[in-house]
Amino acid sequence: xxxxxxxxxxxxxxxxxxxxxxxxxxxxxxxxxxxxxxxxxxxxxxxxxxxxxxxxxxxxxxxxxxxxxxxxxxxxxxxxxxxxxxxxxxxxxxxxxxxxxxxx
Amino acid sequence: xxxxxxxxxxxxxxxxxxxxxxxxxxxxxxxxxxxxxxxxxxxxxxxxxxxxxxxxxxxxxxxxxxxxxxxxxxxxxxxxxxxxxxxxxxxxxxxxxxxxxxxxxxxxxxxxxxxxxxxxxxxxxxxxxxxxxxxxxxxxxxxxxxxxxxxxxxxxxxxxxxxxxxxxxxxxxxxxxxxxxxxxxxxxxxxxxxxxxxxxxxxxxxxxxxxxxxxxxxxxxxxxxxxxxxxxxxxxxxxxxxxxxxxxxxxxxxxxxxxxxxxxxxxxxxxxxxxxxxxxxxxxxxxxxxxxxxxxxxxxxxxxxxxxxxxxxxxxxxxxxxxxxxxxxxxxxxxxxxxxxxxxxxxxxxxxxxxxxxxxxxxxxxxxxxxxxxxxxxxxxxxxxxxxxxxxxxxxxxxxxxxxxxxxxxxxxxxxxxxxxxxxxxxxxxxxxxxxxxxxxxxxxxxxxxxxxxxxxxxxxxxxxxxxxxxxxxxxxxxxxxxxxxxxxxxxxxxxxxxxxxxxxxxxxxxxxxxxxxxxxxxxxxxxxxxxxxxxxxxxxxxxxxxxxxxxxxxxxxxxxxxxxxxxxxxxxxxxxxxxxxxxxxxxxxxxxxxxxxxxxxxxxxxxxxxxxxxxxxxxxxxxxxxxxxxxxxxxxxxxxxxxxxxxxxxxxxxxxxxxxxxxxxxx
Amino acid sequence: xxxxxxxxxxxxxxxxxxxxxxxxxxxxxxxxxxxxxxxxxxxxxxxxxxxxxxxxxxxxxxxxxxxxxxxxxxxxxxxxxxxxxxxxxxxxxxxxxxxxxxxxxxxxxxxxxxxxxxxxxxxxxxxxxxxxxxxxxxxxxxxxxxxxxxxxxxxxxxxxxxxxxxxxxxxxxxxxxxxxxxxxxxxxxxxxxxxxxxxxxxxxxxxxxxxxxxxxxxxxxxxxxxxxxxxxxxxxxxxxxxxxxxxxxxxxxxxxxxxxxxxxxxxxxxxxxxxxxxxxxxxxxxxxxxxxxxxxxxxxxxxxxxxxxxxxxxxxxxxxxxxxxxxxxxxxxxxxxxxxxxxxxxxxxxxxxxxxxxxxxxxxxxxxxxxxxxxxxxxxxxxxxxxxxxxxxxxxxxxxxxxxxxxxxxxxxxxxxxxxxxxxxxxxxxxxxxxxxxxxxxxxxxxxxxxxxxxxxxxxxxxxxxxxxxxxxxxxxxxxxxxxxxxxxxxxxxxxxxxxxxxxxxxxxxxxxxxxxxxxxxxxxxxxxxxxxxx
Lengths: 104, 668, 535
Description:
The complex is a heterotrimer of chains A (104), B (668) and C (535). Chain A is an all-alpha fold. In chain A, 75% of the residues lie in helices and 0% in strands.
């Protein structure tokens, strides 16, 4: 490999930032679809970390895990979007604060 | 064999109680004959057995250990053991004679007195028999717990009999008062018993005597024990400050007053002191206290008796006063004299009470002496018997009371710790005694008034004693049958001759018979043990004392005659304002009122307040508040549950962060 | 036999459950017969079992083992020793009386035109209660004990909550929370024993092994455990200041509930103290003995005063229970055989005398429907036999010699006196106050002229006791006098076991002393070594 490797700590900081952005998005946004996208960001930040450590340890199992996560994320996106659509059908809104089914 | 007889003598009255108790449960009033047979018969047989045993087991009885009989074990735990076992020794046989003998006479009397109380006849005899049973346990038990069983048992009978007319409020209240006042004494008695147990390791008389025979005990220890036990005697034998129940106890039927509240139960305290002679004779300071309490009680109650108008109240206070004499004797170590007075008092006071009962009965339940007078013409024999008893109690020479009272006064005079003051107390009481008893005689039997006429005119006068429906026709005296007069005559004879067992030494130049007897039979000879308590006096001084007490007896008689016979005074009606001292005496120095104000009412108030405030408002409420606080916290916590999903997500995240800190925070 | 007596009520519950549901509002004879049969079988079985009891043996006997599990130390077995025999028999005798009384009471109510509802549940609750109480006393294993201890709560809550008086919900919740709160401490204590135990396999069987392994715990742990156990028991007894559930529960509970509650349920607390606290933590209990004596004395006097202040008969009797339980606490912590025996005697006595008092109050309440003392008066004239029986109960309650109450009280006071004079002298005042409140009650209710209210009621229904009602009180009266003059009947059976409990204290003391000695010896040795080395 060439010497211009990115130090793993940079990647960790990046993934932390990405994860935090995603989490803030989940906690603060009202639109379910945006929240959904934020969850994807969080997933991808973790993926990134997997890849980085995989490189760092020279162990491919991290990258394998990433493939799994991507596959499952795809499935999840499909189901999630379906759920969003059914929610919209039921409540006629995608604003999460309007849906208070957890109370009572 | 004789053991079985002794047990039978004690338990026969119990069988009488069971039989009469069952009869009293019947819907129809039981046959009075049957009840009388059970009631009188059981006590009569018991009395006969005691006579037999006294002669059959004479040597054992007068010996130190006495004649004992074991029935069955009672309490047996650790080192404590108390059995239903009886001890017939010189002291207890003396008491057993009085209890069953006078008890039998009063039972016979009651068959006449209670004749008209048809629905309650059996119940009355059941209680009386139960009383004899308990009293026999008191005097014959061979251990303190068994004495205490009798002690509380007679208290129960007293309670039941005082409240015999339970539908009358004053009777019910008086019964309750008697029981509770006695319980105060009993509390002291229990502690005394415990102290004695701790000291001697046993509560059986024989072992206690053995302990005192073998060890010499510090007077300070014994003083405390003696005082605690004396508190018990204060309650049972009506001494200051616990005497207040006895006058109220007159709410009971008159035979009860004679048997329980004059002749037997109230003397239990005196008996107890004689029973535990080694304790009390080893406690000189406590004995002095006892003597003075007795002296003051004698004087105070004699003062109250002066102005009472209820014939039974006079006798009640007279009893308290005479009991004071007995305690004075016991306190100065003159056990023989105390027991002697106990006996003579039992004779003449029973006679007085039964006689007053006869008067009351004859006058259709009239008890107020202001409505009596001139009865002598109508009931001569009764009046003569009354005179006998009055002469006996007042200390006029020749009759029983003179000998015993004179002996007490002389022993008090020679007592080293303030004997002169004691003598003065007793001396003043003697004047008062003579006065109030002859006042009673004159007001009742003489004076120019005529009780029969007064009764026929007066009708009801709101005294509450006339509520017996069957007395509505007031015409003439109720005739008194043989069963009423018979016991009176016997008691009259005893009152005359009963004193000759204790002729004074200045006449015979010997120790009086009864003193010698108790020196022999008690485990510690009192006159030897208490010899150092007394100063020696010359024979001439003794003569002088005797003459003085004879003088005051006649003085009392004369004064009473002067006021009530010569001047024909009748005590004022309740509505008339009394002079200060009469007011004080008539109202019993307001002791009852004082007790109520400073003891009873505050205690009740504290009880009410501690319920309403401490229990309800503080303890219970604090638990309720604990519950309310939980609800309150809940009502705030509930707001966290918004139903808005991101909020829950936020909780999850913050929870995770906190846990992460807890788990990983310590890593670096 | 023990198992039979414990399980018979449960079998009856199943049978009653299988009965067809009926809409009838008349008292059901069938259910009464089934329940009576079960409780009588249970009683007979316990008598038969007791006949084989040897009073010289201080340990558990008549053991019946069902499942043993060495793994978790929980053996399902029943057994009795001198400590539990008396209470077991008392329970077995009280329940048939309670069940039959309930039926008699239903009849009286029905005669007055009241509807009797949910009898299935009523009898079932009573029977389950019987099983659980018998189980508590026969349990030979700490866990088994706890299971029955908790099981008791369910039927009792139902009894108060469904058939109670006006304020039943409040009383039920209070009763439940208090008792349950106490149980939390108990289960905490049991778990803590597991946590601290050092043996590889700890058995919860109540044998000397358990006592031994407990004695090796560090002292501080023992103190915590002691409190965990005793708090739960004290609430159950109950002592001042955790007594306030009792008056509510007693007043609101139906008569049979009050009888059982006073008769045996409160004894579970005192039984627990003698069974667990004293032998498990002998030195700690000795350490705190003075504190408990104070609690006992406060209970005696405070309970008596409060009883005096009551205007409700049942509440008065309930507070008298607080006072009586104070005596028991005093006796238990006196640390000598006289006091401990007295405490045990008093447990039985209180069951008899207070049980009888509640029964009697119930009998008259069925007719008058009032518990206010002021509504009564002159009852002795209207119902003489009732007055006599009530008097006997009163005398037993105030501890008149010749009744059972005296023996217990006397022994407790004497035992306490030998241990702590001040406490005894204060406690003796309870003798006075006891007479004050009981005679106050008796006078107000029975003496004087009959009150108008009673006269009015008398026109509708006879105030005299029926034959059945008199019959129910007979066992109590017999026991009052029998134990009063022949207490040996009971005391002989308990003597060996109680002595053994006191012996654990003595042994623990000795062990402690030896330990101190050996520590001291070791210290001296090391010091000697040090000085030698220094030289």
